[in-house]
Amino acid sequence: MVNPASASSPSAREPLLQAIGLSKRYGTFLANDSIDLDLYTGEIHAFLGENGAGKSTLVKTMYGLIQPSAGELRFLGEKLELTGPSDARSRGIAMVFQHFSLFDNLTVAENVALGLDGVESFAAMSARLAQVSRDYGLPLDPNREVWRLSVGERQRIEIVRALMQNPKLLILDEPTAVLTPQEADQLFTVLFRLKSEGRALLYISHKLDEVKRLCDTATILRGGKKISTCDPRQETAASLARMMVGAEIGEVKATSARATTVPRLLINDLSLEPDDPHGVYLKGISVEVKGGEILGIAGVAGNGQDELFSALSGERQAPKDDNVIIDGHAAGHLSVTDRRKLGAAFVPEERLGHGTAPRMKLSENALLTGHAASDMVHHGFVDKPKTLETVDKTTKTFDVRKAKRDPEAASLSGGNLQKFIVGREILREPGVLIVSQPTWGVDAGAAAVIRQALLDLSGRGSAVLVISQDLDELAEIADRIAVMFHGHLSEPIAAADATREKLGLLMGGASPAQAEAGVSKEAVHAIGA
Amino acid sequence: MQLVLEKRAERSTKIAILSPLLAIALTLVTMSILFAILGKNPVAALIVYFVEPLTDSFTLMEIAVKATPLVMIAIGLSLCYLANVWNIGAEGQFIMGAVCGSWLAVVTNGTGAGPWVLPAMLVMGAAGGALWALIPALCKVKFGANEILTSLMLVYVADLIMDYLVRGPWRDPKGMNFPTTASFDPVATVPALFETGRIHWGALAALIVVALATVMLGRTIKGFEIRVVGAAPRAARFAGFSSSRLVLFTFAVSGALAGLAGIIEVAGPVGVLQPGISPGYGFTAIIVAFLGRLNPVGILIAGLFLALTFIGGEGAQISMKIPLDLTKVFQGILLFYVLACDSLILYRIRLIATQKKASHGTA
To answer: Is residue A406 within 8 angstroms of chain B, CB to CB?
Structure first.
């Protein structure tokens, strides 16, 4: 174990890890621009910044995945030149990635064994795994296959794997992005414990309230540069956001006229077998979305949201034609194209490869969904000027920033591409819009634009269904919120009554009645474990 | 120092054009080494291979004759490959096209049938190739059978069917027991373009196919569908395009084009149905498709170039006693380099300095 931190103030201590003038250049693009920074033991240090601010590049440099172009890292005062992640691990630097690197068909112990560099026997390793997970209150069954585990449990594997290397510095990349509020609370307890053991923690996030609650120091990055290092507890969420974005973020507001009460999207008792063995069974989902309304669907990832989306979009057919009704037409057996012709539009979660063909131009990606229900195609021939017109209109209306008029989709930043994808659908004025994770991994500025566009669309009388893991987002735009858990969809509750705690309980599998009664935290933990 | 492949932000159009040229250059270097090993003067051999055929109007026309089936087949294959559908069996579809079309030529032989015979033969050739291609396509769609294996295996089936027919029921009774049909009647023959030389109307048909493919891929929703299904299958499904339908479509079209090339070949330059009507056109067309960047105009150029290697190879065999099989070696090496150079379109090579372990000290 690392020695506990001394009680003296950070500045008097030697930093554990130091970056001095650290730069990373890709061609003409500076991903990190001479960054100086000190990480101390016994401290949780936050990296705050929007997408593309340079957070990932910086931590990847610290983890040996990237070699810096200029400047250096110092570890306990000595120059550190990492040859790769295993080198970083052997020096006591561990990382928990946002996207887990786990094999679904292997057990917990097998996955951990694959990720460790040591030479101990499998039995000894399993025993140590059980020990570490017990010690830190991160319960895990070493013999369970990963595909049976919830996302929170999968994250535990990654954390335990990192802890088994007894790291001096633990880097966590957006660890709460996939957790329920209650699961996040559990994680924070573990992080505080690690801090008190005298480890240094580096916490990457863009959730400001979390950083304020958890972190001792925050370094704000913007456009590859360090903007400031501050004590987040002394800052307000607004001041932190200002430093991150470099400007005030406008608040979204609903337009007043949201009158219609006609249900435009009806889901009737939709049950659907998953098409792959690790998928989720949809069980009797019923809900309606009225014109002028935004219905939010919350839930931890992997509880059937993807399956629901493909059943609604028509990428998978429903068992019965009237399982899905779009504007009064039974659409359960219709193809994606026919559903679009009924005035429905869809925005999937995955931008590259699902919402767009990454290596195709934006005009071609406009055609991707536009061919169904617009005048882009005449007698089988594509009207190219029309597709370009759609690109230009979307660019103008949604402020899509790009290097040239018609670049490949993959060359756009996440936020700009998302604005394009959402914009492309909204410009068609769909009567029903189904959108999954509308602002996932999108910078705050773009997120505000997208949320406002969804509100405006519903204000014009469309029915909007938003599947999101971001409770703040749903609170901001949804009129009613339902929760998905294990393929079930709860009764929607009015957004005004949907407290974080209530939603968190539903996300953990409590019944609506239990959530109403505010079942004790212990019960949820028991379910989560 | 260390060589690293680094992903480019956008595909490089410059490299997309340069890559086949680079591949050809590397192939020529490799071939020179092979010539040297065989004890031949590499410079003289390359001249025989690649320059001499271009200096004579007869061989120039022969290049066009050889390029005709290559281009037609490769255009069809490029549609498959763009859609990530792997039709390797064009050789079999070529043969079945030739067989189906020839049936009409055989049964009308000497009956004085009218000029409808040739057009009907062309239709039957295309239909035969398409139906033969639909076998692996249906197996893939219905049972998930790997189309690479099934389409390839059907090549040998087609070859044996043809062999049986020309040695058995369709053998020319006056053919002195040679395995061949009777010579086709003039109404069953593709006319030559000029008085001399073997260049025929099929060459124009190939050009029309190139033009149609250019329009289809560039301007129509079907062409877009083909490209999206290949480039981003999930996005294609989201767009409402069915990949199984496209498997059937691309196999049928490429089979039809290969079958058409087959019947044009036997009804044109060859004039009879016999074993060995194809020196491996269906396989060489795979190289043509990739060397031509799966682009119709590129395929036209690549088809002419590969035709040159056939003619040059024959010349080299006659004048320098270089084995004809070396042409196949050449084509194989070329495909290898084309595919290797293609990675440069999406990646760039970078030299990266590696730190010496010693510089870490004892930390």
So the answer is: no
